[in-house]
Every structure is written in structure tokens, then in C-alpha cells.
Amino acid sequence: MISASTAAALQPPRILERQAAEWQGLRALSIKLTCNEPLEFKCLEPRHFLVALEHTERYGGETNVEGLPKSTRRDLAHKLAFIPAGCAFSGWVKPLASLQATLLYIDPELLSADAVGGGAEIRPRLYFSDDSIWQTVRKLKAQIGSPHLRDRLYAERLAAVLAHEIVRLDDGVGALPPMRGGLAAWQQRRVVEFIEAHLADDFPLAALAGLVQLSTYHFARAFKRSFGVPPHRYHTNRRVERARALLTDPRTSVAEVALQVGFSGASAFAATFRRTTGQTPTDYRRALG
Fold it and tell me: How many CB atoms lie within 10 A of CB 214?
């Protein structure tokens, strides 16, 4: 299926051909639609959403992406659209002929600073051209349906390449202008208090955004401007800081510390702790002496 939100919002449902694949950090979907009636779409994805429109021309329609001007462009063949996680995306289209597209749902961690380097701001783009991204999408599409392990590994390497290609896009048509500021003082205080009170809990980005009356997309951008890291990274860093304090008590085992700060097990906790501090929890405790 396309996704829970996208499939539910596509009216009328006219998916005639569909192929899907799930790789580490990436879900790919190849679809073909044929319909002369207007099609409506509306989605708000928890993943980044990249659309490669292969054969698409419409009599009429419009596309709305949060933060960008409305588009009524008709010839959409060989165009790309990139919608960041949590960014609203909606509209309608009356196709001139069949619509063929490859849809890619990208785990936000794949485009994180740790994965691609730097601290690039991920912005929406609508109906743009980029040959490198287009060719990578075509290669990924060719791996859909393959049962071979070597093809899976190849697809996962292509996903990493795609992440770098998206991040390295220069500012251009469809890019948002830089934000002038981050969260207001009261917004920062409310979010920090909530995170500290729920340090061991997992909660969606929408929960934080709702606290300060912002969309998830604009909240994520404003939060990073205020704190220098994305909300998920801030939450993880605070968990590690709490863990460091708990590790000073030798009577508490590493496994108990992991559970107290919200990790499902000691191994996941140790991996995150080492990635953040450069030491394992055991080495950190030993260094305390």
C-alpha cells in the first residue's frame, strides 16, 4: 500500500499496478494510475517523501505544500517533489493520460547529520529536476521485487547515496527562505519541561508541536534553530545526560540505567551512549574510578 495516510486520502482509488519494497531506512512504491476523473490526495507523512513523476500530464489541478506557493503546473513528466517529514501535502489532479510514479518514503535518520554530515536544513521542493536524483530513483525502482540479498544490499547503498543527493541540493526554485528565528522563550520552556518530564517515554513529534501551536514541519525547523539539533537528537542527548548521572551510583546496573532512561535493552542503550559520548557505559563508569 502507499501508506496509511496517503492511501486513505487518495480518492477515487485507481491503483492498477503496484510494486513495493522495504529496505533499511527506505520504502519504495511503484504505481500506475489510469483515470479521467479528478483525483484528490492529502497526506502528512512521518517519513520524508520523495515523488518521481515518470509520465504525468494533467488537464487541471493544484498542489499545495506547506510553506510553498500553490502549483497549478500541468506538465509534470520527469519532475521530482520532495516533502519533508511532518510537512503537509495535498491537492487534486485530473490526468490527461495514465499517471506513473515512484514514491519513496525515507527514514529521517537517513538524512540526519550523523548519516550525511553537517547540519543541513531539509526543505520542501516541488516539481524540480535533478538528474542525479532521477537516476538513483530509477536504479532503486529496478530493485523492487528482487528476492536476492545482493540486490537488497545494493538498494540500501543506493538509499545512502540518495540521502546525500537530497541534502546537497542547492537553494533554488521551491526552497523556503531561511527562518529568521527559532522558538519563542515560552515555547522553549514548555517543550523542555515536557521532554524532561517524559525523558524515558517515546512520543511523536506532533505531541511537541502541539504544545507550542505549530505544525510539525515548522516546529522541527524552529526547534533546531533554537537548540542546534533536531528534537529527536535533543531528546536522546538528554537521556544520555540522565544516564551519566545514574551511572555514578555503582549499585545500579547498566541494564537498570538503560530501562530508567527509556531504552528497551542494554545493547541499544550502550550503542547510543557510545555514539554520543565516545565511551561505553561500562567504560564511562570505570573512568569515574
Answer: 17
CATH 2.60.120.10 in the chain, residues? 4-167
Q: Which residues contact 240 (CB under 8 A, 6 or more apart)?
A: 261, 272, 273, 276, 277
Q: What is the pLDDT of residues 97-126, one digit of tens each?
A: 677 899 999 988 887 755 565 445 678 899
Is the pLDDT at 185 greater than 90, yes or no?
no
Note if the pTM is more than 0.85.
no
Mean pLDDT of the chain: 82
How high is the pLDDT of residue 178? Answer: 41
Q: Which three cell numbers stand for residue 178?
A: 531561511
C-alpha cell at 64: 499545495
- Assign domain 185-288 to a CATH class: mainly alpha
Q: Which of 261, 247, 256 lies closest to 195, judged by CA?
A: 261
- How many CB atoms neighbour CB 47 within 10 A? 20
Question: In the β-sheet with 15-23, what is the strand arrangement from edge to edge?
Answer: 15-23, 26-33, 99-106, 48-55, 79-83, 125-128
Is residue 196 scored above 60 in pLDDT?
A: yes
Q: What is the location of CATH 1.10.10.60 in the chain?
A: 185-288
The CATH number of the structural domain formed by 4-167 is 2.60.120.10
